[in-house]
Amino acid sequence: EKLQRSGEVPPQKLQALQRVLQSEFCNAVREVYEHVYETVDISSSPEVRANATAKATVAAFAASEGHSHPRVVELPKTEEGLGFNIMGGKEQNSPIYISRIIPGGIADRHGGLKRGDQLLSVNGVSVEGEHHEKAVELLKAAQGKVKLVVRYTPKVLEEMESRFEKMRSARRRQQT
């Protein structure tokens, strides 16, 4: 109301701001912020506590959206393989992803990888922006232990799988 009366902000911008502030997303952020603020264990000034809470809230939402920090997963390389499948690559205009964890396989037993992890590097060699085959070659050539750097981004995998399915459907329609 104060902003409305002052005339400093155009009415259409105020309406847009009001819609955002009343949105489900904004309410979810507020609820998480309030919960974190009540549980954060910082015996400092309210300003420091509020700042720490704001950062924790942003981190929580970033992680929930799948934009988590990279992590290192080390798997033993055995005759049975690594126990996961990958999809994507430069030729498909997409990052390389862990598309499947084989039940009972090495990756499944280890528990460090998740379906939806983006593969960033294999034994120190980046596979970002690389062809699918390069990642496969690096994984096959690895001996002893395989050190993977991955980042959990399931939403992007879902979008990629949806795009591939649309392409497959279009090809099937062309063939009939």
TrEMBL record:
One of its GO terms (biological process) is protein transport. Pfam families: L27, PDZ. InterPro entries: L27_C, L27_dom, L27_dom_sf, LIN7, MAM_complex_regulator, PDZ, PDZ_sf. PROSITE patterns: L27 (PS51022), PDZ (PS50106). It is found in: Basolateral cell membrane; Cell junction, Tight junction; Postsynaptic density membrane. SMART domains: L27, PDZ. This is Lin-7-like protein C-like protein. It comes from Equus caballus (Horse).
